[in-house]
Design brief:
mainly alpha, single chain
């Protein structure tokens, strides 16, 4: 049987090793969520003191907390940026659809106006040519009748009256055509000026840069072919739509790049989360080891007290140390 001095020395060595690992009872209470029962409640001697937790464990826990806070902030920033990009893309697509609809409506209106005016002008021209041929024929008849000795033919007088009526009708028709042409030109001028103001306002409000110079509309309606002015309107709107489409395409490319960055940061986030989980697992493993050591220490302390009272043999106190 070992002497009391040897047992006391072994107990002091075990207590020193446990104390060097930190306050195990407090650490176990923090990890397990319940206080570790002291030996005094089992009728045993209670440990008096454990040193505080090592600093590297506190630093490791603080590092985990900092990483989690940083990841939450990064995730909030990414989600807000993605929401703003999605809203901007939806607004720009709606603007493109509106411009495409306006463009189609303008082209349809121009084609209808061109067809209507061309048909009206062709019919007027045919009437003028027919009337001109008729007048020429009547004049030839009159000339032949004048050259004849008897110019008092009733048929000739009737033809002269018919000629005068025809000339009067042609003059009225010509005046009507002139009025229609003036109205058409006035309508085209108003239409042109409205679109010139609209294109200028849209370029200043929507586009960051102006369209090509050859597609800029002047504020003054030129005295030229009306259809050329109409085609200039179409080209101006087409240039604006092309510029807007290019702008949207650039923004789509930028959005794709941002999405790639978000995926990369998400991958980094997952990697950091894996590191955090691994560190937590290591801390839990160390907590379990410390709890086992504390339990063994309490059992050793109890057996030492029993040895001091002479109640236990050496092989019963240390059965696993032979």
């Amino acid at each position: 049987m070992a002497s009391m001095e040897e047992l006391q020395q072994q107990w002091e060595q075990a207590s020193a090793q446990i104390s060097a690992r930190g306050n195990a009872s407090q650490y176990g209470q923090y990890q397990q969520g319940q206080p570790f029962p002291p030996p005094s409640q089992r009728g045993q001697h209670q440990l008096q003191h454990f040193p505080p937790q090592p600093q590297h464990e506190q630093a490791q826990a603080q590092r985990i907390l900092d990483l989690e806070t940083e990841l939450l902030q990064m995730r909030s920033t990414w989600f807000e940026q993605a929401r703003q990009d999605t809203q901007i893309m939806a607004e720009q697509k709606a603007q493109i659809e509106h411009l495409e609809a306006a463009k189609q409506g303008l082209e349809t209106k121009c084609n209808d106006l061109k067809d209507a005016n061309n048909g009206r002008l062709m019919r007027t021209l045919e009437l003028i040519l027919d009337s001109h041929d008729e007048v020429i024929n009547q004049n030839n008849t009159i000339i032949r009748a004048v050259q004849q000795p008897d110019n008092s033919d009733p048929a000739l007088q009737q033809r002269l009256q018919e000629r005068d009526q025809t000339i009067l009708q042609l003059r009225e028709q010509n005046a009507t055509n002139v009025t229609l042409m003036r109205q058409n030109k006035t309508s085209m001028r108003v239409h042109y000026e409205e679109h010139a103001r609209a294109t200028k306002q849209y370029r200043s409000e929507v586009l960051d840069e102006d369209v090509s110079p050859e597609f800029r509309l002047t504020r003054r309606f030129e005295n030229a072919d009306n259809w050329n002015q109409t085609f200039k309107l179409k080209d101006a709107w087409k240039a604006i739509v092309d510029k807007l489409v290019q702008k949207v395409q650039r923004q789509e490319r930028q959005t794709a790049e941002k999405q790639s960055q978000i995926e990369e940061v998400q991958r980094q986030y997952e990697e950091k989360q894996r590191q955090i989980d691994e560190m937590k697992w290591q801390m839990e493993e160390r907590s379990e080891q410390i709890i086992r050591l504390v339990t063994k220490c309490d059992r050793l302390e109890t057996r030492c007290d029993m040895l001091k009272r002479g109640e236990t043999e050496e092989d019963e106190v240390f059965p696993d140390t032979r």
